[in-house]
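Troubleshooting: if your tokenizer reports a length mismatch, compare against these two reference records.
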Amino acid sequence: MPSDPRPAAPVSIETHGVDTIPDADRTGRPRDIAGILLGSNLCLGVVIFGWLPASFGLEFWPAVTSMIVGTLLGTLLVAPLALVSFRTGTNLSTSSGGHFGVRGRLIGSVIGLLLSLGYAALTVWTGGAAVVGPLHRMFGLPDDGVSHSITYAVLAVLSVLVAIFGYQLLTRLSKWVALGTVLLMAVGLFAYADQFQTSPVTDSGYLLGDFWPTWALSVVAAGLSGPMAFITLLGDYSRYVSPRRHSAGTVFGATCAGMLLGLLIPQLFGTFTAFASRAADDYVGSLVAAAPLWFLLPLLLNGVFGTIGNAGVLIYSMGLDLDAIVPPLSRVKATVLTSAISTVLVFLGYFVWDAQDAVTAFVLLLTAVGTPWAVITLIGFARCRGAYDPDALQVYNRRSRGGIYWYSGGWNLRAAAAWAIGSLVGLLAVDTALYKGPLLALTGGIDLSFVLAAAATAASYLLLGIGSPQPVPAEPDVRATANV
């Protein structure tokens, strides 16, 4: 298909929420999706996941292989979700109403909101540490709760301002962040090279006692969790790409490239620097302490701009999800509210929680409930062959009734039941330092929550859907019946 000949829209405060984007406004390109996935992920909030395998007691090469395997598996599952919003012109949680029902799609909105909340808090938390640490070494800034609190507040405000402007600013900012951070990481390899060792950084052995259970934990917590963080975010950007000017293949390819590069580059850098700085219990503190003086300024700049870029993308998505849950809220008001909640989580992460246990438990539990939602959405997309009624998807947002996705009171009970079954199986198979599911006794102590959740969901959804065909619009724009 021909490229979009029109110039990019000027940067201004985005007016669209979770409504259907008119084709005239769908000026995005597939490379914009790749750019924002690359740029928004090159920050310490993603880098820190490369430290997790080291903190689990793995040696360097098993840590690397676990992340590569997990990221590849996650990308294969998650990247096709970009095609859903590419077809519907709205975000993914709203699009999932075609399979869960126009009210049942609230499952996706809540999952997306929780995922973005947690990852945004993690991004600001690690970014704040990367700002305070270098300033402490360079200028003697007190490395205490007051300095961290002020830094967190400033980063949160800057991030929410970027999120309020929305799509156009985020896509342009991501390009510059990507360029600067790739250069920083390349320089960082030289900065830490003379300290690098492949031996474990902990003295306590494998976190789960044996190699394979710990390696499997790393596959899920450090590798798979990266792509899973995007199960509801991809549609925020693919909805701006017009199917009249671009093909599904180019959108899918750009999404895969952006996810793989955007996740593996920072995570592998995190693994390398974790082993070089011997970061056992505290990644960012060890990273700053082991950095040469000349590398502190680049590290500080990444702490600021990398955090703003990544947290801005996540807060933007949170605003869309809350807007979808509470339609009377505007996108801007929803964005400000969710950013305030995320900032509270940042302070809890610094003053209350243990970093490693909190991060690991968070990503594993949300992966267990997010995977079933993604599986159902993808199966539904395949069953309807990408044909949706965009107007009928907006019924809940208009506070009306009817349309081909109304199902039973706005809920597809079969999809909701399949999601519940898959989530339950996944939660029963999770293995973290805070919680161990009873199914671990049947899996040899290896965390197979992702695989079991996906398989249970697919089987139950297909079985429950026998005799219940996927609604397909008879015409390109079938109107929903309003009944306020």
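Reference record two:
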Amino acid sequence: MATDAHSGSDGASVDEPVYIEGADHLEQVVDEHDVVLVDFYADWCGPCKMLEPVLDGLASDTAAVIAKVDVDDNQPLAGEFGVRGVPTIVLFANGEQAEQHTGVLPEDRLRDLIEGYTE
């Protein structure tokens, strides 16, 4: 079965961000991959736009799956994670939430965060 970049099917590497369509979709992506970095963002958020190319790069050159959750389209999901500001980054390792950070983190810090759970 080929990997669908949208759903992350078959557990293989996903080289571009996966846009999450709700709680069930997020749960599926987290269950199928060892390390998932979730970006809770909003289209109107300037810092979120600055972070976007960084996350695109991390998606293509790290073992983690980068998942993106639009807080305006997924308010209940954002509420479930206590998202009070965007961007908020939530890292899952082996199906469990391991880290949560609000605000823009530099690329090297995000890379270190991912690599801490993928090695």
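Descriptive notes for reference record two:
- The helical segments are 23-32, 46-61, 75-80, 107-118.
- The chain has a mean pLDDT of 90.
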